Amino acid sequence: MTYIAKPKIAHPSLPKNELGLTTRDYEGAVSTLCAGCGHDSVTAALIQAVFDLDIEPHMLAKISGIGCSSKTPTYFVSQAHGFNSVHGRMPSVTTGANAANREMTYIGVSGDGDSLSIGVGQFVHAIRRNLNMCYMIENNGVYGLTKGQFSASADIGSKPKKGMPNQQEPIDPASSALALGATYIARSFSGDKEQLVPLIKGAIMHSGFSLVDIISPCVTFNDHEGSTKSYAHTREFYHHVSNIDYIHPSKEIKASYDEGEAMPIHLHGGDTIVLRKLNRDYDPTSRADAFKFLRDRFNAGEVITGLLYVNEDRAEMHELMGNTDTPLSQLPYEGLQPGNDELKKLQNRYR
Amino acid sequence: MATINDVVIKIATVNGTGSASANGLMRKAIFRMGIPVVGKNYFPSNIQGLPTWYEIRVTGDGYHARADRVDVMVAMNAQTYAKDMEEVAPGGWLIYDSTWPRSKLLDREDIVVIGVPLSRMCNETFEGARARILMKNIAYVGVLAALLDVDLDIIKELLEETFASKPHLIESNMQAIGLGYDYAREHFPCPLEKRVEKMDETKGHIVIDGNTAAGLGAMYAGATVGAWYPITPSTSLMDAFRTFCARYRVEPETGKRTYAIIQAEDELAAIGMVLGASWNGARSFTSTSGPGISLMSEFIGLAYYAEIPAVIYNVQRTGPSTGMPTRTQQCDLISCAYASHGDTKHVLLFPGDPEECFYMSPMAFDFAERLQTPVMVLTDLDIGMNDWMIPELEWDESYVPDRGKIYDADDLEKIEKFCRYLDVDGDGIPYRTLPGVHPKGAYFTRGSGHNKYGGYTEDSDEYQEVIDRLLVKWETARAMVPEAEIRYSKFNKAAILTLGSTDGACKEALDLLAEQNIGLNYCRVKAFPFTDAVREFIEQHDVVYVVEQNRDAQLRTLLISDLDADQTKLVSVLHYNGMPVHAAFVVDRVRSEIAKGRAA
Hints:
The complex is a heterodimer of chains A (351) and B (600). With 351 residues, chain A is an alpha/beta fold. In chain A, 28% of the residues lie in helices and 19% in strands. Chain A is built from eleven helices and 13 strands. With 600 residues, chain B is α/β, with parallel strands linked by helices. In chain B, helix 5 (152-162) runs antiparallel to helix 6 (167-187) and helix 7 crosses helix 8. Strand 2 (81-84) of chain A pairs parallel with strand 17 of chain B, so a sheet runs across the interface.
């Protein structure tokens, strides 16, 4: 990976968001991933999402671990603060960062190796805390940087370029997250920007832990015939179970939807997402039903996409801890210690 | 002739029976008589049912270490009775519960055995199994009070303070004290030849453990994020921080907290959280012990290379591996000094007692932020969990946290371009920015190769420039860390050099050796890297006894690696059985080295 700055020449007719910024202002360095890598499409969707949400670039923290996916924070919003940490440990760094400053937006970008093998413990516990973050898994079923070993999300029977097909049970991040109590779970496909952008926006605006699991094919090591994470396979087997429209609080709800099949969901920050169910059997507000549906379809080899589960009622980490609204990093020191007289007083118990 | 205020009392009980408060009562009563005390816990890695001991050294001379003997043993645990009896010094006393007969085989001619029917008396006086067990402990305090001549009024005063909200307990506890006290006075000549007598040596002092003092120090230092994973013997440090925060860190208007304590899923996550929080501008810390350091090492290397502040308390315990979790050692010096793969080295602070645990806490946060690097405070179980008499803590109200070199929004407005790792001032410390402050402050934090501008690099020269600059920072740290405690006389050609909790035993050993006309100089290092004064101190002597509590002479190794010290001068005195070292051990070893032909 080399660091290539992207020339900043914006076309005058590019649309501007409420901050007066164009999508160019949300770009990062030139990607050094393989041509056609699904991750670059995810980056493009991310840029669109944060542009649409009018997020001030410096109020965004983009945090990652190690791997191809974890390189991507370099490729978006160069004026946001990036932290490329150690393998599998993005969630803990994000937890600490968020603990220090609850006002910023946290996007963690991870991969299936980073999150489901070396980092599975931290993935699990970030969910348990209902950490307020957007957790993206760019899921391609393989380790790219070390040249094509299977990851824990590889499906049974999926064929590698060389060697035997995978026989181990895959870990599905979405149904795992559901079992663990995540409060916003979406899945999409890097090749479906139209669906992905609103899902990311909803994930960012959701108060609590949001998972966006994105099938993002590896063109170099896992895009061949027989792979279940290839572009061709994903296109054939993926089904939208729901679509969402993200609605900015300042905008009138205009999205048209059929009464019986659409559901407005009001997010904590005042935003609304309108969920359009495309499958009558599916209820994304019921954990038990969603789990059964997901597992059944997963076992049938289908890739179910859309907003799979949402729960706006659970408190996020700071609320659970009863923390002050002011970011802890901005509290003036004077209020953080009770002074010498109190120190004298409290020592009476040690006599 | 009576020995006044120089007696060691050891109380053997079963853990989980509530003896800790009785033992604390005894220790406090003696302290309030104005007599310096040392309190040591020797406890199992267990919750209930295994042997545990509490040792009170009454030391009118004000020594800090444990003694090498037991004068009065309170043998309340049948399981360890034989061993406990064996431990009593000739001429000493053993108190046991005579409710049940004692094996005739277990006897010693050279000690006085005092039987008190504690269980019987308590069973006759108190109702309920739990109360009887608890009161039995209080009753032996009564026995000790009679035998040692401890002031009953002071015991009463302490009980009144403890049970201010439950007055009926004051009465029942005093009743239990009376049972033991009266029985002892009736049946045995009281007081013993070794006893206590009021003096005036504890005014302005407190008795506290190091973990409590460190937790208090972290709160006063302005720490707002604590992330940790429970591990003996460091747990009570974060517990103390939590207790003090619950009292002083809740906004009165809203009831909301101005701190976050996160119990992590493991130590890897704990240090990751600390780095995330520090990176984002909070004063953040973790507390752990040796196994936790092993798990944190990868992240510690990231913090070193990406230059992220972090404060890590390591309350050392006996290793290797799980080792003996409830025993003490100074065995993580090397693993902390060089934690993580690659070329890394870390600033370490070595408090010698709870007082320094408190004062070194704000210092650790200041250094971590000033130097933008992890700072580890290395205490041990002996400091962390035992009771030390120290001068009352004072807080300097003029203290302002040193947040180090940070460009704020105004600074960023003025500069053309911010580059994260430029050595602007020539001290090896670059300027950093905090996220969420200004768009011009954005940079990419990474553990991968980077150049001085903060960009990713695989260029040899660019890479090397940065890691060479970190060495400049290392020398800045050397000039910044606290100076060693040095006692120097030009007449002495030999010296003792030590660190941390070994201080007490060494200073007492210096006194004992002086009585034998062996004069030694003294140096207690307080930090790594070692200061120039430590280098000079070693150069000034022919022989330096390096006293430390580990098997592999880790302090000596660090002296050689960091100062290039002449290793032929450095003679190791090593104590590593898990018990805190005492002066007699140091004296013996130094004397035997002298006998081997090394000039003193």
